[in-house]
Automatic annotation (TrEMBL):
Predominant localisation class: cytoplasm
InterPro entries per record: HATPase_C_sf, HATPase_dom, Heat_shock_protein_90_CS, HSP90_C, Hsp90_fam, Hsp90_N, Ribosomal_Su5_D2-typ_SF
Binding positions (ATP): 37, 41, 85, 90, 98, 104-106, 127-132, 179, 331
Designated name of the protein: Chaperone protein HtpG
Family: Belongs to the heat shock protein 90 family.
B, as annotated region: 332-547
GO CC annotation: cytoplasm
Annotated GO MF terms: ATP binding; ATP hydrolysis activity; ATP-dependent protein folding chaperone; unfolded protein binding
Tree of life domain: Bacteria
Provenance organism: Actinomadura soli
Region described as C: 548-623
A as annotated region, ranges: 1-331
Subunit structure and binding partners: Homodimer.
Amino acid sequence: MSLQAEEETFRFQAEAAQILDLMANSLYSNKEIFLRELVSNSSDAIDRLRIERFSRPELAGDEDEGEPRIRVSFDKDAGTITVADDGIGMSRAEVIENIGTIAKSGTSEFLRSLTGDQRRDTALIGQFGVGFYAAFIVAERVVLTTRRAGLPADEAVRWSSDGKGEYSLENVERAERGTTIVLHLRDGEDELLNEHRLRSIIKRYSDHIARPITVGDDDSAVNQASALWTRPKSELKDGDYHEYYRQLTGDFTDPLGHLHAKVEGRYDYTLLLFVPSRAPYDLWTPEPGQGVRLHVQRVFILEDSGRLLPRYLRFVRGIIDSADLPLNVSREILQGSQAIDHIRASAVKKLLRLLKDMADGEPEKYAEFWTQFGAVLKEGVFDDPAHREDIAGLLRFTSTRSGGEARVSLADYVSGMRDGQDKIYYLLAPGLSDAAASPHLEAFRAKDIEVLLLDDAVDNFVVTGLAQYEGKQLQSVAQGPPDFGAMADEAEKEAAEQADSAYAALLGKLKAHLEGKAWDVRVTSRLTTSPACIVANEAETDFTVARRLRGSGLPAQPILEINPGHPLVERLNRGQDDPRLADWAHVLYDQAVLTSGARIDEPGAFVSRLNDLLVSLTDGSSG
Ligand SMILES: Nc1ncnc2c1ncn2[C@@H]1O[C@H](COP(=O)(O)OP(=O)(O)OP(=O)(O)O)[C@@H](O)[C@H]1O
């Protein structure tokens, strides 16, 4: 007997133990999923064998075989359910790695994501690839026997565990390749030992599995045994798609929409793509795990989140099945594949069309979509210039008229423009409440001009990427002089010119006092109620962006704008010889900085200046 043939005992990793405990104790209300998970692993194992045979032809035909299948059986007397496949199997090292450790990256994320809500938590199992352990929901002991394709009969392995912290491994003989999993059911699970019951679970959860699944001695398949996307659309109902989506993603909420298209022509391919109704936990990680699964002639090849669809559609789930790629296609080959380029372009077009139809036909649903994925879709404006127009049409914004909701499209905005208005105005701000309170909006409010309020980190790239929509230029309200174009009437222009000359002397003095702080001081028609505000030089990046980039809060060349109609400013103009004018200048500047949401340089100096001024005012001793 070789050393390896002896039974050895191993401890599960701590996280594995936690997951096992969870399976056994918390996910019971959805216990049938154990079968879904095991069957899905078997189906993957059969697919992997088929793929491997392309690169290792010696594996082909090593046994006389019929169509690969998944067999589910049960033994009432022994209290066991068995799931067996003739897939690729596992070597000893693979068993230790795949079944023993769960050292997978998603595991701790999985544990962190648990909510305590059983339904949701069950949904997570599929997403995080801890499916095998679902066996312990119903089993008190699981025995897995497996032989890797290509290895001799005496190198099969038996893994066994009660899921309580340890598992054992021993070498065994096994005549045929593949994997057999025997579940010794817990007390009270006898109702599962029933042909009818097992069939209905399979029908319900595994109908779409492309391999035949048999139960008991009956050799006919319980499931449809054809990949769902290969079936004609006319045969499929929403419910079928939803169930398939659930299997694919582990997400128990119905998707917001799906598209199913079989395309024949220069390239033959099928798309079955879903728009989920909520964002996955890793939507914002640099390399989101799930994406679109690539199949070649129905065989699952790889999961891809970067090549098959652009990043701004990374929330889409589903499958692409191509007839034009080799089965041993790799990620590298995908890079240069014309077929993939073609399929990707067509998928993008169809997805954008699906979203447009949803936006037009089911605005409520689209609003849900936007809440979940709008910030991702926006990236398309600068990432995919070829579809910029289409994506622009799908954008939704909060505005000064939208009551806090992101529901204004650019088309809505344009149709609500005032006579003579030729620009689309926006304000970038770190948050919506900052935006809504911004002094930069005052004149726009007074003139009833709508302003888009942008608070997403990507929004700056969106406005610079777009630059214009239907010939209307996008214009920041916090940058450069306010520009009302044709909407400024003659009287206003005249008043502005008069103010400029009436305030010239004061401006010079303020500028001198604020040297090193304000790059310029100007009179503005932008304000109606605030005395002053800070704007960015027109040549600079918008200052909210500068703030994000530098973290300091102000543009490099901050301009102080003062409101000639404000009593405080009028009074300074009248009393320019006030010995406290320097203090006034600084207080005016610092409060404008504060209302912009930025930090002031010397809060202590600001407070003492302000207090001095208050004291002098209450003394009645100030000019
Ligand atoms: N029947 C089987 N035949 C061959 N390998 C298997 C079988 N069942 C499981 N495995 C191996 O064990 C690994 C772990 O399985 P598990 O179900 O826990 O996660 P997963 O299959 O990777 O993820 P998911 O559940 O999301 O499909 C699999 O990736 C596979 O390598």
